[in-house]
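Supplementary Methods S3. Complex input for the pyridoxal-5'-phosphate-bound model.
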Amino acid sequence: MSVSENIKEFKNNLPEDVTLVAVSKTKPVSEIMEAYNTGHRIFGENKVQEMEAKWEEMPKDIEWHMIGHVQRNKVKYMAPFVSLIHSVDSKRLLKEVNKQAKKVDRVIDCLLQIKIAEEDSKFGLDKNEALELLASEAFQKYENVRVIGLMGMATFTDNENQISEEFKKLKQIYDSVKDDYNFTHLSMGMSGDYSIAIKHGSNIVRVGSAIFGERNY
Ligand SMILES: *Cc1c(COP(=O)(O)O)cnc(C)c1O
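Predicted complex, serialized as structure tokens:
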């Protein structure tokens, strides 16, 4: 099936209250335009410079979401246009986003990435670090970032029980803070596990290969 058929079918099967971020990392503009031309406007990238290049070349009504680990010295390149950063995984990164957003007179929406997977390689805060950040005096003073929810990635495994447990854990953390901080976004689920994530309360899924096909790195 083509990209346009894939994305249309995927969205037809998605519950109405779940947002799709079409993860276009490594994919050429021509293929992303095929998805765009079906009416889709939300795309996710995991490298700042690749996202910036695509933003420059593509229609300006696209919402670009950053979903990958961000180095602080790269924040300035996306501050003028990024619409949601899913992957804020440290206090220092949030501070830098606030600083760069201020320079361009924007308020940038962010999610805190929570580490729920068992692998060491996955970035993210643990629950206590996230709570501490949200309660910190520094955070209260940031006027150019808005933390609107949480993001997490489950362990890459065939064990659906384990994936369920990890998403359940993130949902519990989300529920325990969402009223205090007016959270609206729980970003969990990728091509291999989005249906489990939705079952556990995800309302924004990040899906790449199920739409664009496998990536060749
Ligand atoms: C690449 C990526 C995705 C999408 O992965 P697929 O398995 O291709 O759907 C989702 N989230 C993050 C953080 C990613 O880096």
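The chain has a mean pLDDT of 96. The chain has one domain: 3-212.
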